C-alpha cells in the first residue's frame, strides 16, 4: 500500500493480496484514462466493422464485469443478479465474432488446383498395346 506500511485494521495475512488488488486497480485506472482520452467516434473511425464490434464487446464485458465486482463488494450475490445473464449474452456475441475471425483466417480451397493435384497424383496403368509395341521395337 502507501510505502508498504502494514495497517492494523486488517489481518497481516491478506496484506499481499490487498497490495496486488491496489496495483491492479491502478492499472485499470490508467487503461481507462488512456481509453477515455480518445473520443469513441475517433477511435471507431480508424477501425473496420469487425474491429469495431470487438471494441464494443470488450467495453461492454469490462463494464459489466466491474459491476459484478461492485455487487460482490456490496454483499450482493452477482450470480443471482441480471448482470450474470448480460455477461453471458455478451460472451455469446464474443464467440460469434471469434467464429467470423476464424473463418476469415481459414484457407480457401482452389478447386481447380486441387483437382490437378489429385489427377497427377493418381497412378494410371499404361495401356497394354503401348508396352507390346515398345518391346517389339527393341528386339
Mind explaining what this structure looks like?
The protein has 139 residues and is mainly α. Among the domains are: 14-46; 47-104. It has helices spanning 15-37, 40-45, 49-73, 83-105, 111-121, 128-138. The mean pLDDT is 84.
Briefly characterize the structure:
It contains 6 helices and no strands. It is an all-alpha fold.
Topology:
Layout: H1 15-37, H2 40-45, H3 49-73, H4 83-105, H5 111-121, H6 128-138
* Major beta-sheet overview: none
Straight-line N-to-C gap: 99 Å
Shape: elongated
Radius of gyration: 32 Å
Class from secondary-structure proportions: mainly alpha
Task: Kindly state the number of beta strands.
Answer: 0
Distinctive features:
139 residues, mainly alpha, 71% helix, 0% strand, RNA-binding, Sas10/Utp3/C1D
